[in-house]
Automatic annotation (TrEMBL):
Subcellular location as annotated: Nucleus
Domain called DDE Tnp4: residue spans: 129-293
Cellular-component GO terms for this entry: nucleus
Family: Belongs to the HARBI1 family.
Phosphoprotein listed as a keyword: no
Keyword terms of this UniProt record: Hydrolase, Metal-binding, Nuclease, Nucleus
Biological source species: Parnassius mnemosyne
Full protein name: DDE Tnp4 domain-containing protein
Family annotation (InterPro entries): HARBI1-like, HARBI1_dom
PANTHER family: NUCLEASE HARBI1-LIKE PROTEIN, PTHR22930
Domain of life: Eukaryota
GO molecular function: hydrolase activity; metal ion binding; nuclease activity
Length: 324
């Protein structure tokens, strides 16, 4: 294991970055934070698996979605040990990176988020949507986890800012529940209903004296709310006000679709049915979401994790497809 790790670090062709989806510097930073939580005490009976190997095993599992038995051949340890390592490391990652995903705490922070959308959709604070994460069907689970696509899944509900980072994540709801139902059960909706999000007060869009609230944009699965804006339903003729509005709203909603797309492309465990119990699968998904924000905000790994042209962009209100 040590030899494989050393060889990867010594490779001049950035093989290590592809192996763990981040730079060596960020790997060491992450190791310094999770190491004390995952390091095991050495005994006179046998050597323990080093913390850096434990972290590398977990990151490789998240990056590839390979089975524990498949990783056994790479890391030369039993699949039972790998199972325990992944569970412990995901819990440690969630603990040390928990501040990577957080809602703005005051009006000024919300206005900073709005300024990033202002040229495309004024008064927009973020985009919200849900993603079904496939799982292997659970014994005796009945139809609780069967979604509208007739597959087993849990739901990831997220609020995303203009920089494709998560501001809020809710993971673990059963796949049979719609996005709107998951949203109504979330802490975000509760805060919205109790006015505890500290959103900016409604203001006019221009010289008009009509106060317009600040909103989160969503699709038709979500309820209409003073602070949630969704498209006009149905089909509308080209050039109509409704169609132009829907096009503008869709150009903003791409941030949440892109965030899900990038995270799934880099952490391919999300592209395969996860062979874990729902509570353990939820921790894997949350670890991926926290790592997504960690890498998006890192000056060392951002270009590795999501290179230029990897994400759809908005230029003068028009969507420029990444082509990936």
């Amino acid at each position: 294991m040590e030899e494989i790790f050393s060889d990867l670090l010594a490779e001049p062709s950035n093989q290590f970055q592809g192996f763990v989806r981040m730079s060596a510097a960020d790997f060491e930073l992450l190791l310094s934070r999770v190491g004390p939580l995952i390091e095991k005490q050495k005994t006179k009976f046998r050597e323990t698996i080093p913390a850096k190997i434990r972290l590398a095993v977990t990151l490789r599992y998240l990056a590839t979605g390979d089975s524990y038995r498949s990783l056994h051949y790479l890391f030369k340890m039993s699949h039972q040990v790998i199972s325990n390592i992944v569970k412990e490391c995901c819990a440690a990652l969630i603990y040390v990176l928990k501040d990577m995903i957080k809602l703005p705490e005051n009006e000024n922070e919300w206005l900073q988020k709005e300024s990033e959308f202002k040229d495309t959709f004024p008064h927009c604070l973020g985009a919200i949507d849900g993603k079904h994460v496939a799982m292997v069907s659970q014994i005796h689970s009945g139809s609780e986890y069967i979604n509208y696509k007739r597959s087993f899944s849990i739901v990831l509900m997220a609020l995303v800012d203009r920089n494709f980072c998560f501001m809020f994540c809710d993971v673990g709801n059963k796949g049979r529940i719609s996005d709107g139902g998951v949203f109504r059960d979330s802490v975000l909706f509760e805060k919205l209903q109790t006015n505890s999000l500290h959103l900016p007060q409604p203001k006019p869009l221009s010289d008009d004296d009509v106060n317009v609230p600040y909103v989160f944009v969503a699709d038709n699965a979500f309820p209409l709310h003073p602070n949630i804006m969704k498209p006009f339903p149905g089909e509308h003729s080209e050039g109509s006000t409704q169609r132009n509005f829907n096009r503008k709203l869709s150009s903003v909603r791409i941030v949440v679709e892109n965030a899900f797309g990038v995270m799934s492309a880099r952490f391919r465990v999300l592209k395969k049915p996860i062979t874990l119990q729902p509570n353990k699968a939820s921790k894997v998904v949350m670890a991926c979401a926290l790592l997504h924000n960690f890498l998006r905000k890192s000056c060392n790994s951002r270009s590795i994790y999501s290179p230029s042209g990897y994400i759809d962009t908005i230029v003068n209100g028009e969507i420029i497809n990444s082509g990936t």
